[in-house]
Amino acid sequence: MGAQLSGPRRTLVLGVGEVPWDAPVAAADDAGLRGDGFFETLLVRGRHAVRLAAHLDRFERSAAAFGVGLDRDAWTALAVAATADLPAAGEAVLRWSLSRDGLGLVTVRPVPDGVRAGRRGVDVVTLARGTATVPDAPWLLAAAKTSSYAVNSAALREAARRGAQDALFVDADGLVLEAPTANLLWTAGGRWFTPPRSGRAVLPGTTLEAVAGELNVEEAHVRPAELAGADGAWLLSSLRGAAPVLRLDGTALPHDADRTAALRGIALGTG
Amino acid sequence: MGAQLSGPRRTLVLGVGEVPWDAPVAAADDAGLRGDGFFETLLVRGRHAVRLAAHLDRFERSAAAFGVGLDRDAWTALAVAATADLPAAGEAVLRWSLSRDGLGLVTVRPVPDGVRAGRRGVDVVTLARGTATVPDAPWLLAAAKTSSYAVNSAALREAARRGAQDALFVDADGLVLEAPTANLLWTAGGRWFTPPRSGRAVLPGTTLEAVAGELNVEEAHVRPAELAGADGAWLLSSLRGAAPVLRLDGTALPHDADRTAALRGIALGTG
Q: What domain of life (chains A, B) (predicted)?
């Protein structure tokens, strides 16, 4: 544990190579400093980036939405170079980002304490998002994982302010959308559900995709009050895998440790 | 003109001072590279930053929305230092940005050709924004000028792809909101109008504020078809001042050069 908390931090720049972890890399007028770019966050276990191909696929979809090219081989090589020296056991966080001006960055850092704690469970609050529908329009970048994360970060700060570890956005119709950095999965009556994504402010996650490849996950609208009556709920994301929702706006949810273990196995690629 | 096009480019870092224009200033893990910060863009005429106090006020409101402090005196001093050596005549663009991690940047650069051309008039296309309403919730940062500009930039690229120079976002109810970097003003029957801002995805602009201080500007909902029948429409922003809308989705709008000159005088502080 101690080794991981103080573990390696590395920064690699596309077309340049490794630089010191905290070296300045972006010029003041780079599009990346206007949120005008996209990124992926991957979990590395040992020296293996979990679901590398799925992340590359989404990174490529983001690039297409931004109208820029992407060299899959170059990013794969950067991922390999960045993680080659990691300990054979243990975990790390790998992040790719590419700005519209072409600034490509790869970082490796230890898994934050909050992520580890989140795997054991999170308290969640619901937060209004306002957005009702997202038209199928390329300029809205709905399929891209953009670097414009100001609202996502502000929502997580609001959750912390309320004593919770995560949030679920609720749209103007009162229906649950997603967490700021995770998708929602819940179970009721022996079935598995996730909120519909088409035409809504929900980014398809690679972890949800992996779970849906193993379980029959149906799309269903859900309101917070209904979710609080589910047989269990989880936030699915690359770093935490499947984080069980322990409380929703203060109401305790059932938590089945065996289900969480099974979901985590699928999510982290160890199932 | 030539001197302005090839004019000075400067970068100053809060707490550090001047660095070369294109020097890297942001580390890979700075919040600024996740769109997690806020900014202001000011027009400098001679060595005078137009509406400095109004921009400082909004910068301060943005800081409050992000839960960070702001030293007005430090930013004023940076603005003075950045513009002190500019030619006594002519214009430049001054930009302030502050990331949640505290990376404060001031840049000065020449006014882009597109901005100068835009003052003579812009062709505009309407683009769906999807958002209908924005709840009064601090985590949505509605009053902040955030650095999360990916969608704004993508909308301007879509406008260019359609042969236009700017865009107007239209909400899920078919009502006009704002341009990606400007507010809308129009006139009809001798009255002045702008779309309502409260509870909607419309950022209050300092230029609109200045115009509303001189003219009686009423709030009114407007659909693109109604706007096309107006007696004139303008996009108000710090750099262009008042850019007359020459065409909306291909339909020519009336353009009264005297009105544009009067609005520009108010907008640029020369009226």
A: Bacteria
Alpha-carbon torsion angle B78, B80, B81, B87, nearest 10: 140
The residue-averaged pLDDT of B188-213 equals 94
- Quote ipTM for the complex: 0.93
CA distance A104 to A81: 14
CATH of the structural domain A114-267, one choice from 3.20.10.10, 3.20.20.70, 3.40.640.10, 3.90.180.10: 3.20.10.10
CB of B37 within 8 Å of any CB in chain A?
yes
The Cβ of residue A48 has, within 10 Å, a number of other Cβ atoms equal to 14
Share of chain A above pLDDT 90, in %: 86
d(CA B129, CA B169): 5
Q: Is domain B116-267 annotated with CATH 3.20.10.10? A: yes
With an 8 Å Cβ cutoff, are A24 and B27 in contact?
yes
In this prediction, residue B223 carries a pLDDT of: 98
Q: What is the mean pLDDT of residues B87-101?
A: 94
Question: Cβ separation of A131 and B130 shorter than 8 Å?
Answer: yes
A28-37 pLDDT, tens digit each:
999 999 999 9
Confidence at residue A2, expressed as pLDDT on a 0 to 100 scale: 34
Among B129, B126, B203, residue whose Cα is nearest residue B173 = B129
> How far is the CA of B85 from the CAs of B4, B9, B22, B51, in angstroms?
13, 11, 19, 19
C-alpha distances out from residue B172 to A130, A212, B152, B175, B201, Å: 12, 31, 17, 7, 11
- CATH code assigned to B2-111: 3.30.470.10
Q: Which residues of chain A neighbour B25 with C-beta distances below 8 Å?
A: 24, 26-28
